Amino acid sequence: MVDRLANSEANTRRISIVENCFGAAGQPLTIPGRVLIGEGVLTKLCRKKPKARQFFLFNDILVYGNIVIQKKKYNKQHIIPLENVTIDSIQDEGDLRNGWLIKTPTKSFAVYAATATEKSEWMNHINKCVSDLLSKSGKTPSNEHAAVWVPDSEATVCMRCQKAKFTPVNRRHHCRKCGFVVCGPCSEKRFLLPSQSSKPVRICDFCYDLLSTGEMTACQSTRSDSYSQSPKSSLNDVSDDDDDDEDSSD
């Protein structure tokens, strides 16, 4: 079906509409062989609070952006090559339901669908696209992925020292290796993680010690682990601050 749609006029028109919705700030999406598989609104678990994002699944990339005007205008376009994607289901917990992890070497995050059926359809289509891409390229699935950041709301104290309380003065920071919410003194060091940045990034002391001694896999955590270790949360108890999950400084 994908091959049949690849060069069809209907597919070209649909992709052109998506391009126009992102405007001049978005990257061109029309290339030979690319097919728009589906689209929809998913709730992305951001650093500050859950946010509705518009997602577009193509046969080779996953694109998402902020909703400015539904079905008319989006901004802050993100493009994720599907060859680097792995996904894992998340168990329902409170208001956080019908979710799964989207994991890549550079960025990983959780998303939630409105219904279980919608979740199943998204996951099945993503897995099919990834499988087809890897089959054609002969590559193996990526076994490296960035940690999923624990949302700010899930940590009132530093997740490493368990002592420092967060206040407007004592800010929350995120370790780029394990994704934990940590205080400044527990995350003063930097380490080069080439898959995430060309410059050394903030990591916690625990991960720094493991990385420095070569025990890299020991400090890799997953979002599922973080759910079981952190306090219960809901879509209604998070901060009203603006979404700042792309900020590389914290």
From TrEMBL:
Where found?
Answer: Early endosome membrane; Endoplasmic reticulum
Compositionally biased, Polar residues: which spans? 221-232
- Tell me which residues make up the PH domain: 35-131
The UniProt entry, under SUPFAM superfamilies, shows: FYVE/PHD zinc finger, PH domain-like
Q: Please give the InterPro entries that the UniProt record associates with this protein.
A: PH-like_dom_sf (IPR011993), PH_domain (IPR001849), PH_domain-containing_F (IPR051765), PH_Phafin (IPR037871), PLEKHF2_FYVE (IPR047966), Znf_FYVE (IPR000306), Znf_FYVE-rel (IPR017455), Znf_FYVE_PHD (IPR011011)
Domain FYVE-type residues, every copy? 152-212
GO CC list: early endosome membrane; endoplasmic reticulum
This protein's membrane topology, according to the annotation, is: Peripheral membrane protein
SMART domains referenced in this protein's UniProt entry, alphabetically: FYVE (SM00064), PH (SM00233)
Kindly state which keywords UniProt assigns to this record, in alphabetical order. Answer: Endoplasmic reticulum, Endosome, Membrane, Metal-binding, Protein transport, Transport, Zinc, Zinc-finger
Acidic residues: which segments have biased composition? 238-250
Pfam family for this entry, one:
FYVE
From which domain of life does this come? Answer: Eukaryota
Citing just one GO molecular function, the answer is:
zinc ion binding
A Gene Ontology annotation in the biological process aspect, one of them, is:
endosome to lysosome transport
Q: Where is the segment annotated Disordered?
A: 221-250
Role, per record: May play a role in early endosome fusion upstream of RAB5, hence regulating receptor trafficking and fluid-phase transport. Enhances cellular sensitivity to TNF-induced apoptosis.
Q: What is this protein called?
A: Pleckstrin homology domain-containing family F member 2
Organism whose genome encodes this protein: Grantiella picta
Which gene is the coding source of this polypeptide chain?
Plekhf2
